[in-house]
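Blackboard transcription, Thursday session:
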Amino acid sequence: MRVFGIRLPAMSSLILWGMIWEIVGRSGLTFFVPPLSEVLVTLYSVLGTPAFQKALMETAYAFFMGVLFSVAIGIPTGILMGKNRLIDELLLPWVNIFLSAPLTALVPVLMVLFGFGMKSIVITTTLFAIWIIILNSRAGVLQINRSLVEMARCFGASPLAAFTKVYFWAALPEILGGVRIGVIRAVKGVIIGQLLISIVGFGALFELYSNNFLMAHFWAVLIVLFGMAFTISEFLAYLERRISYYAAKR
Amino acid sequence: MPNRSLVLKVLSAVIVFSAWEIAGRIPVSYAFPTFLESMNALVHMTIDGRLFSAYAETLQPLAVGIAISATLGIALGLWIGLSSWFDWLFSPIFIVMQAAPLAALIPLLVMAYGIGLTSKVFVVCIMAMPVIVLNTAGAVRNTPTSLTEMGRSFLASDYEVILKIIIPAASPVIFSGLRLGISAGFIGAILSELKITPTGIGDIITYSRSIADYPSMYAAIFSIIFLAVLFLNLLEKIEATLFAGNVRGYVSD
Amino acid sequence: MDMSPTRKNVVEASGFKVENAVSTRKISKNYGPVEALRNLSLDFPKGQLTSLLGPSGCGKTTLLKIIAGLLEPTSGEVEVNGRAVTGPGPDRAFVFQDFALLPWASVLRNVAFGLELRGVAKSEREAVAEKYIRDVGLAGFEKNYPHELSGGMRQRVGLARALAVDSEVLLMDEPFSAVDEQTRRKFQEDLLNLVQTENKTFIFVTHSIEEAVYVSDQIAILLPRPSRVSEIIRPAGFRSKGAENIRRDLEYLDIVDRIWASLRTYVE
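(Written on the board underneath:)
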């Protein structure tokens, strides 16, 4: 977008939307939308409160555990599926099912099996993130150029060396792509888990604010949450671009 | 060998369901019924019609929400893809929405619109819309330049370029955006039934849990996941037949 | 510095003046600070095939797209039959390097597409399209889709589409570069026939020296950074000797060698 020959930065329209928010808030049109400035002031005061920090810590813990499990289990599983046809054919239907299944329906099961606590939330997060990571790792291994595999064999690479020096790196762009999408899904999973098991983290905080009609507080937390989610996803996209510069040139 | 892939699919299903059965028999948890008990409950629910009335209720916000998101989302996506001004104005919102955990908006929606159908439709819309808009806009932007140049060199008007070249060229990606939107819409519909008010399938799940009728609870969850996956796979099949060869046919292959 | 084309090897066709179908006058094209074309003037005689030949990045395709009206020159102008070009027009048809076929449309609709955009009635345009599908040797494939055809057949569809609108000028942007060598040779022979039978003016962009010498009545050698015409060559002797004898004709071989000698310093 250019105005008077000057290129406007990509996300700069958010400033305009922020201004519209402020105007709508000030006009008193609706109780549910307080002015942005009020929300930002509240945001500043909320950040220091123990309730917020506790929610943030709990959420971060569930999120990182979930991502850790899905990466640690997902990548090896995906690579194994890419390398072994029998395992691939046995697992692939299930991976595809869980990839598109409405996983929210499983949360009640997790609640009765693992209790109304952190464990269920971590598992929910893992369930949201893992399938795309498996699928992308598998795709990454499958697309490795035949001549690259043959090259490794021609130059006498041992299976281990071929794996660590060639296959992993050749599949890395797809694996990273999977991790990025998986992480974005994990953010959604952790919030959905907390909403349904609403006694921990932001779920509890939302409950508190909405029961007391603390609109500005609510929006402040939303801004923090959305901002963090967006930052994480952009950061991972940046990493992916940095590392997979060769993806198109294999 | 008679159709290896099918045999393995069946084998894989048998392994998983037997594992479920065995785990239920041990039992691993008081709240873990066997596979057969759950299927039995599912058959009962189907026979006494409870399942059908539940689905009639569950699918209502889903259908309305998807219809709204599809119409609005595709229109907005086309516009964003065609006009750099709209792209600048709207893209950031949908990019943020795509990355953000929009489920967090649910408590606010409930406060604003109550616990009725409106809130549930809203939930479906906010879940389904971003991917539909972003896919449509991206597809329009990525129309092969040589195709639009071809249109112009054979004297197509702007309107004809959009109608006869850009939209057909973009439709496979738009359709897959729609499929992803529906997938997200399912998540939203169930989430709203579990979070806002228990109706439909959400009601069966919540009620069965409260009276510890775990086979019914598992049966309801099984059925909704089964239905969603079946429907989405069907859409994928339609997509594959509808656009066979549509993405191919350029120099590169 | 002398920017006008040097005419070392111009053999005027038996003395009389040929009429030009297309002329470019002092065309310049800048992309920001980058000069793609500078002061380029070139004439394209009616009913003949002119090749634009040069190393990659010399602006051949840019020039062709300016003639097509797809790009606007920064300065200078293009005339087709004495009228200035302001955009795409019915007097020019384009054959694309990557074919630019509609993947969702059958061969018949693809060939008829140019006429469809001109508002020709369906039955009429399909009759015309069928004729040209036969002419390019694709009879029986009317109902097929592009992805069911080989690369060579796809480009025949692209060619039929351009012929179907019956323009005076045919602009071809490296049309054979995406097909295999043997198909390309067949195309080149067919193109020679086409130039003789269809009374059209052909402007042909290529990076193959042999191809340019083989098919052209006139070859314009373009040199890069910024692009200008360094030489115009008009092979005269071998055109009448029949398609199968050209490749061993001495004049043909000489011209190929000479062009390579002048281009090789520009190839990195």
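Lecturer's comment: Chains A and C do not touch (no CB pair under 8 Å).
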